[in-house]
């Protein structure tokens, strides 16, 4: 398919279109987003949308690919902190980034289950790019295991289970806040410290 930027005299409105699609999705859910609504939000004709995307599905897929942030970002920093500072403090910083990802991703991901074709396309897209939540879980698991070998995290901790519990707690908090429409108590910054102390305690040095 020819891209707009390759057509002389044409204005590339791709970014505007994707931003409009995300805004409407947050207001109405994925199933409630139509190309007519998107074109009205952007201020162009429906036909203009198809200069960029050949179908509603591909337009929404592009919106998901661009709107969802990269979860591995906070975890890359975590990998660089192995053996440095406090393992628990490092995990708290990383989980802060993961929680912010979940806050943004939850409403986008939830709508996918109402659109099986879009869900299948997004799964295929993640597979092609070598992305997915399981990879982030693995990075978190490996960090915990490495710090254990360095004697900085209690040896009794199961790295895989700990990573699962930490990631699940972040997702559930983000989901609950979206579902109930407000912040929960205690604040995530306080809860995450309590969570880490319980799930991945430091070595008890007597």
Q: What fold name goes in the CATH topology slot of the largest domain?
A: Tetracycline Repressor, domain 2
Q: Work out the number of β strands.
A: 0
Return residue spans where pLDDT drops below 50 for at least 5 consecutive residues. Answer: 1-10
Query: Helix/strand-derived class?
Result: mainly alpha
Summarize model confidence as the mean pLDDT.
85
Largest sheet: none
CATH architecture classification of the largest domain = Orthogonal Bundle
The sequence of SSEs as H and E is HHHHHHHHHH
Query: What separation lies between the terminal Cα atoms?
Result: 67 Å
What is the alpha-carbon Rg in Å? Answer: 21 Å
Give helix % range.
Answer: 55-70%
DSSP helical segment count: 10
Q: Which CATH C-level class of the largest domain is it?
A: Mainly Alpha
The number of domains: 2
> What is the beta-strand fraction?
under 5%
Shape: elongated
Describe the structure in your own words.
This protein has ten helices and no strands. The protein is mostly helical. It folds into two domains: about 60 residues, Homeodomain-like (Arc Repressor Mutant, subunit A, Orthogonal Bundle); about 130 residues, Tetracycline Repressor, domain 2, CATH 1.10.357. The N terminus is likely disordered.
């Amino acid at each position: 398919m020819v891209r707009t930027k390759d057509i002389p005299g044409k204005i590339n409105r791709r970014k505007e279109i994707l931003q409009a699609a995300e805004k409407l999705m947050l207001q109405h859910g994925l199933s409630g987003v139509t190309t007519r609504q998107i074109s009205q939000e952007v201020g162009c004709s429906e036909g203009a949308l198809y200069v960029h995307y050949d179908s509603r599905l591909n337009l929404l897929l592009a919106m998901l690919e661009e709107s969802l942030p990269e979860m591995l970002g906070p975890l890359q920093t975590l990998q660089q902190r192995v053996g440095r500072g406090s393992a628990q403090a490092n995990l708290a910083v990383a989980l802060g980034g993961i929680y912010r990802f979940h806050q943004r991703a939850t409403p986008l991901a939830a709508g996918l289950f109402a659109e099986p074709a879009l869900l299948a396309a997004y799964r295929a897209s993640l597979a092609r790019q070598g992305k997915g939540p399981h990879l982030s879980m693995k990075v978190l698991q490996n960090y915990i295991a490495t710090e254990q070998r360095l004697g900085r995290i209690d040896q009794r901790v199961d790295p895989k289970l700990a990573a699962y519990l930490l990631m699940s707690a972040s997702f559930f908090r983000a989901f609950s806040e979206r579902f109930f429409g407000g912040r929960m108590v205690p604040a995530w910054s306080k809860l995450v410290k309590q969570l880490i102390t319980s799930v991945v305690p430091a070595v008890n040095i007597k």
